[in-house]
Specification:
- The structure is a single chain.
- This protein is α/β, with parallel strands linked by helices and about 325 residues long.
- About 30% of the residues lie in helices and about 25% in strands.
- The protein folds into two domains: about 170 residues, Peroxisomal Thiolase, Chain A, domain 1 (3-Layer(aba) Sandwich); about 140 residues, Peroxisomal Thiolase, Chain A, domain 1.
- The strands form four sheets. A five-stranded mixed beta sheet has the order 1-7-6-4-5, with helices on both faces. The chain has a four-stranded mixed beta sheet with strand order 8-13-12-11, with helices on both faces. Strands 2-3 form a two-stranded antiparallel ribbon.
- Strand 4, helix 3 and strand 5 form a beta-alpha-beta unit.
- It binds acetyl coenzyme *A (ACO).
- Acetyl coenzyme *A binds next to helix 1, helix 5, helix 6 and strand 12.
Length: about 325
């Protein structure tokens, strides 16, 4: 049977780093409050000329280099983002153009912080259907551009960045020993829209708008939703938490990550954490964390890796794969 296996990873971050202490001149907050409530110590903020498409292109080039491939080898680009450069065309098509690709096709996916998990699931389905052989799956965001910089309850939480993964078709036996994606579970529920949304858009205000969030409400739902989809992948695959090598969660808040890992029975040393360095980069957080853990040698071929995310909508999902 056809499986979608990881062939390469890459990441890109804006040059400018903003530390927690730098916020003390922006809003009434402190390094101590931010670290204690979120685990975040710093985040990267896009500067002039750094956009979702340029960061996505840089992450894509790094992933191609890691995989030993060129844009000619890619059939499809799926970009997960909620902060595209323009309302249209899709920033994925801009990245395709920047890579010098005039073959294949590209599109954006919008599931906010769950975007990368949705995108990797979509890429897997395209590969397993036989329609494409290799997919560049990118998560790229510039949330700094939709933040209300006078709202201390949101502006300290987010950062900018991009991560990319190349998935390719490989032959598998149909068992959990196969390389590639073994199980996925996606969910959404629009009744939670008001808890995390952007108060603008082309069809309502004809403007971009700013991020609005009831943080405590999001927190209340996060752990239950995350653990539900993860458990669905365990049931579908027969894999148990003890068998996992790495847990690469969406990096929104260290307390959500710790509580989810505890509830699932995943040992602390198996959890990849980047939220301290990047803040919440929305759809970029999982591929950024994956690229970093692969590059530093933590994630190795044959390892069983669990990804999850939860975000605006609400949307949430999990993917289980063997590296
Ligand atoms: N600095 C100092 N004080 C602050 C700040 C700040 N940056 N922000 C809020 N406060 C104050 C509040 O005004 C409040 O003061 P009050 O008690 O006088 O009213 C107090 O701190 C406590 O506020 P809470 O919102 O109850 O604080 P909480 O412990 O819930 O932490 C946080 C807030 C960090 C936003 C938390 O709720 C959270 O992380 N929620 C999840 C949100 C999230 O991560 N969303 C990302 C997308 S969804 C996802 O990815 C899971």
């Amino acid at each position: 049977m056809i499986r979608s296996a990881v062939r390469g990873t890459g990441s890109a971050l804006p040059t400018r780093i903003m530390k927690n202490a730098d916020f003390e001149h922006v809003v009434e907050t402190s390094d101590e409050w931010i670290v204690q409530r979120t685990g975040i110590r710093q985040r990267h903020i896009a500067g002039e000329g750094e956009t979702t498409a340029t960061l996505g292109e840089a992450a894509a080039r790094a992933a191609l280099h890691d995989a030993g491939l060129t844009p000619d080898d890619i059939d499809l680009i799926v970009l997960a983002t909620s902060t595209p450069d323009n309302t249209f065309p899709a920033s994925a098509v801009d990245i395709q153009n920047r890579l010098g690709m005039t073959h294949g096709f590209a599109f954006d996916m919008q599931a906010v912080c769950s975007g990368f998990v949705y995108a990797i699931n979509t890429a897997d389905l395209y590969i397993r259907s036989g329609q494409v052989r290799r997919v560049l799956v990118i998560g790229s965001e510039t949330f700094s551009r939709i933040l209300d910089w006078s709202d201390r309850s949101t502006c300290v939480l987010f950062g900018d960045g991009a991560g990319a993964v190349i998935l390719e078709a490989v032959e598998g036996e149909g068992t959990v020993a196969d390389r590639g994606i073994l199980a996925s579970s996606l969910r959404s529920d629009g009744t939670h829209k008001e808890k995390l949304y952007v108060d603008g858009g082309p069809s309502t205000t004809q403007s971009v708008g700013h991020l609005r969030m009831e943080g405590r409400e999001v927190f209340k739902h996060a752990v239950g939703m995350i653990t539900d989809v993860v458990e669905a992948t365990f049931v579908a695959s027969g894999v148990t938490a003890e068998e996992l090598d790495w847990f690469v969660p969406h990096q929104a808040n260290k307390r959500i990550i710790d509580a989810s890992a505890r509830k699932l029975g995943i040992a602390e040393e198996k959890v990849v954490i980047t939220v301290d360095l990047h803040g919440n980069t929305s759809a970029a957080s999982v591929p950024l964390a994956l690229a970093i853990a692969a590059r530093d040698g933590r994630i190795k071929p044959g390892d069983l890796v669990l990804l999850e995310a939860m975000g605006g909508g609400f949307t949430w999902g999990a993917v289980l794969l063997r590296w």
